[in-house]
Amino acid sequence: MTYFIITFGCQMNKSDSERIASVLKKIGYKPASKIDEADLIVVNICSVRQSAVDRVHGLIPKLQRIKTRNSKLKIILTGCILKKDLEKFRNYFNYVLSIKSLDYWKDFLRKENYFYYPDPRNLEFSKKFNTNYLKIKSEYANNFSAFIPISIGCDNFCTYCVVPYTKGPLIHRDHKKILKEAQKVIKNGFKEIWLLGQNVNSYHSPTNSSINFPKLLKMVNAIPGNFWIRFTSSHPKDFSNELIKVMADCEKVTEYLNLPVQTGDNKILKKMNRPYTVSQYKNLVKKIRKKIPDISLSTDVIVGFPGETKKQFQNTVNLFKEIKFDMAYIAQYSPRPETVAEKMKDNISPEEKEKRAKILTEVLKKTALENNKKYIGKIARILVDKAQNGFLIGRTRSYKTIKFKGNKDLVGKFTKVKITDALSWGLKGE
């Protein structure tokens, strides 16, 4: 029996897929190299943006064609799924299963068809299943970079976001189990750890309330070995001075930070239920850059939020010009079921949203290129991700993508590269 996993979403979804692979391996499945060679296809979906849901809709005809050629094929839908989408999808899949119930999939898959997707906001369900779910060992996608979840769920309820409704309430993982997993992957030669959470810097250990995210970072940093530490995603409201100091002091914590701003206008921030002002965000960035001058800063932003005027959008443009981000993930607002913003009038046309996204992208291209040019002539330590079309692709400590010629045996290893050229979205070197 063979399986094939399709993942739509963030690093947390990718981490979930690694745990799915581990469970399927225990059941007796082996990975298929191609989707049409699989006996079991798993679609791990993210509902945060409508575009990801649309991609699943677009995938269904292909899955049905494969099924006509293989009558024994079974298809699972899992991940972050809204009730509204569940009703649309359940007729196209043999199984619709909560990712939190992963420890029980072995029993579910014995049935011909099965639907098991309790309300993720049910605290009793979340606590019971999270405990088992996080115990599952990941079948890591490679042997050099490991995703390690430290918390699941979210209680922030930003008005545009479905995560609290699909992932459930915020539940923290025991710090001892996080450290044990980190120690194990480092012992096995991994070069990079990603600490994951929907709001990673709100972390507090459930078994020792004095251990917050900065203290956890220090503990991971103290593990002997030659490796880097990264984390995502952080929230400005929980970004303490203690965390900034720990990032600056811990040599294994890399100089990269994703700090979502979402908009550059205070009124829109309030409508989004983001509990900070633009001024507070800018002051936070100033403090971070003072302590960590080489920090590479990325952000998340939404254009075309309900009621966003041209002047309010211009405030976001001005913020981009002032902060000079290295990277930004620019989303065009789409109403999501069950959120507060869904009840607001979506009065920005798709054409205007597209226009605003392009304007921000052009600003970003200029600032990113300006930032990247500072690396030319420097020698950087690189973790090589892959070999592609005769080149090696890797990342610097500051999460800059770099392309260079080299031996494919370097994949998964550290190497030093001299940076020879800069583009908006990456570097070239030798």
- In the CATH hierarchy, what is the superfamily of the domain at 2-122? Methylthiotransferase, N-terminal domain
| Biggest beta sheet attributes | 6 strands, parallel
Q: Kindly provide the name of the CATH class of the domain at 2-122.
A: Alpha Beta
* Strand line-up across the major sheet: 2-1-3-4-5-6
Task: Write structural notes for this entry.
Among the domains are: 2-122, Rossmann fold (3-Layer(aba) Sandwich), CATH 3.40.50.12160; 379-429, Beta Barrel (OB fold (Dihydrolipoamide Acetyltransferase, E2P)), CATH 2.40.50. 35% of the residues lie in helices and 22% in strands. It contains 13 helices and 19 strands. The protein has helices spanning 11-27, 50-69, 83-89, 105-108, 123-133, 163-166, 175-187, 213-221, 241-249, 266-271, 278-291, 310-323, 350-373; strands at 2-7, 30-31, 40-45, 74-79, 95-97, 114-116, 145-149, 151-152, 171-172, 192-196, 228-232, 256-258, 296-303, 327-332, 379-388, 391-396, 401-404, 414-423, 426-429. The protein has a 6-stranded parallel β-sheet, with helices on both faces. The model has no long low-confidence stretch (mean pLDDT 94).
